[in-house]
Amino acid sequence: MISHLGATISVVNGILFARRLRNVSGVVGAASIGDGGTSTGAFHEALNQAAVEKLPLVLVVANNQYAYSTPTSRQFACRRLVDKAIGYGVSSHNVDGTDLAACLQVAVEAVRLARDGHGPQLVVAALLRLCGHGEHDDSSYVDPRLKQSLVGRDCLKVAEEQLIQQCWADATTIEFWRSEAIHKVEEAVATVQREPSPDPYQEDWRVLASAHLAEAREDRKG
Amino acid sequence: MYHPITPFPHHPALEPMPQVPVIMPQLGESIAEATVINLLVKVGDNVNADQDVIEVETNKATMNVTSPCAGRVNKWLVNLNESYPVGAVLGYLEVSAEDEARLGLNVPSQDGHRADAPGDNGAKAAADRTREKVKPTVRGLPVPAHAAGASYMSPRMKARMAELGLHAADLAGIAGSGAAGRVTIQDFENFLANLERQKLSPASTMRVAVADAMRRSWTRPLATVALPVSLEAMLAHRKGSHPKPGPALYALRALAIALSENSAPAGRLVGNKIVHPSAIDVGFAVEAEDGVLVPVIRNADKRLLPELVEGYNELVELARQRRLPTDATGGSIATVTNFGTFGLTWATPIPLPEQTLVLGMGAGRRVPSWDEHKGQFVPVTEANLTLSFDHRVIDGGAAGRMLARIASLMNEPAKL
Amino acid sequence: MSITYLEAIREAQARALAQDPRVFIYGQDVGAFGGAFKATKNLAKEFAGRVIDSPISEDAMVGLAIGAAIDGMRPIIEMQFADFSSVGLNQIINQAATLYWRTQVPCPITIRLPSGGTSGSGPFHSQSVEAIYAHYPGLVVMTPATVEDAYSMLLEAVAIDDPVIFCEHKYLYYHLKADRLPTEAVPTGKARIAREGRDLTIVAYSAMVHEALAVAEELAGEGTEIEVVDLRSVKPLDTDTVMASVARTGRLLCVGEAFPWGGVTAEVIARVASEGFGLLDAPPQRLNAKDTPVPYHPNLWAAHRPTARSIASSARNLMRL
Fold this sequence. Notes:
The structure holds three protein chains of three kinds. By secondary structure, chain B is of the alpha+beta class.
């Protein structure tokens, strides 16, 4: 399973379904998943379900070429991952995931189409995972040729260049964003580190929202 | 109101004529199997309830297996001159539906399966039916080893008895209706309810304490040896003494001296070790109100009889009034009891739980005794000395020798 | 007028749909077809757009229910057979059951599982899976045995803010009838003494309650008074009522239609043995289906799970112990 993201797609479907039942219009849902997650049964069932119900879902697949150590050649057999959309009967968009401008364009388009009632939009963005699957993983299995190719570009660097080129932001602003982001992360870390740890003896160990249905005796909770 | 639900349907193929198995019964203690030597009825015959249907032979006797109810023999599953274990299904009878229901055995198919134990919903493999391991009788669940027999007490029994402060000894004689004769909680509650209908009087604390001591003492194998002994010497000595020593005191001193010569008989057996006494402290039984107290004379081997008389009498008095000081009780290694004061000539006293020996003295009687020297019977005052002992620590021989030594010491009272 | 267990389930759903606009039903063939067992017959018509057919996707069905619940709805998922719920197991035990624990957001979904065997249904249409769901913290597991409980407990399930696994028994659908629907109900979490007795306690749930009652009737003729406890819900399990019954009788037989290993019967006995050891006058016993998949052939199926006859045999044996 590795990823729970396949299972969460149908949850988004449920929210969209509920909004529709309550006649709330103009709603769009978004879910994201990796290339590996597209192999799960949950992905299949959820995308199929969204297609059958014609839900306004934008499903973004960040295809970073590897699921843990598994390359995409071992993950699916279609020529392009985005071709799966044909089987589900949904619209698709293929985009260079390292290119901010291209991604913006595709996102806007996909959301518009979904909102306008064209059903689920499968968006597959190609990029490369530039670090390990986790901290412990040195990703030495990654094909070095991918690192040298276009898909191996650092998308943040590409974005910076584009922002400056398009005059959407200048170097100072970008630097400000960067330091602001660092600051936010550091502040969040500091806050959390100062929070007290939960005390197992003070914890109510409550698993049901309905308090009256909890098993009364402590020792039955294991 | 409820409409009764139709029960789960059973496939018609499962419901041939109602059948009941003929089962190898429990033929006697420790008999696990028997050999079929004769089929007394054949397939198709009608039988009555309890009619002899199969003749079997065990290593003890030839006996008959009887039919569990009236019916018609449907099939036999046995071969002549082959052995089958207790509980094995030997054949089937076709019976009425009432009989099948009454006999309460689940018969899911025709293949010689035995009836169910709970948790196992039907047939075990039919393959092994003729040479199965011996199992308990079909109608009983396998009773766990520690549960077999009348001594098993369920957790509920134990809890209830703890609540009431009772011991297994209190239940002796309650008829048990449970498996292997065990007393069930129902039997127990009925027993208690019955008690309430009879005359009840409170038992004193003393009584309860003595009961507990006797119960604990009785867990050992106890035996008694006896020796008639002439009291002439003792009586003569006593007549000339002031104050007069009680007869038990003579016995006490004799016992103490005998033990100082050989203390092993008063040792305690703990596991595989005999614990020798460190001091010859001897107790003597005094009847007090609703029970018996045992004051102790410390180092009884080291003091002569005349020195002990006053202290002894004092202790007897204090005991009767139940005012014994603590240092005068406990720690004795043997006890003397003069049951002769009740007129008894013979008794088997029970040693205290922590002691191995109790020396008893019966009532003196004038009896004819053969005097070899005079060539005639002469009247002699004689009494029985008894020595009751824990047979794990000493045997009859050692007990007898100790008793003989005590008797000979009592014949020289001046040396006591 | 008499109403069947199945009709009671349909009535409960109709009432829920009528009284609460947040309720909808989602399952395979539940719409125009009315459900494989007709539990939703006519409901799609009566409540247009709120009884929806799903693709054969148990994982996505439960996922959708979870999402809808997060957004404030009260979905009822009909699994066509309890056996199929295993395809959605990940969603049930990892997403639904843990949602409140992880996020403090309640997950008020109801999943209906047509459970239990009927002759010829075979291994994939006969299972009783309540023990699997009871094992996971965060789920409520209901096992109604009566028409009244099928009705009132399903209504309660929809109202409960937590995921409820509602195990309805397929055999009881058409075979169990009552005169009328209840107007009041005992809340979930309390077991019911279906029959009073003083000699032996049989703890059962769902269809086995009726087998146990038949056994009690039979053994009453032999002078044995059996007390039958209907658990009603397997989680929460009303241990107090079970314990009180064993305190009265001293003998316990627990019966379940499910597989033996770690089932509801094991849980009941574990609790009685550890918390009520001193109440037992005899070793507690349990009777379950065999430890094999449910057989297809009717002969084997009939011998696979407890019946009134095997329960009677166990009860008699327990009385003799």
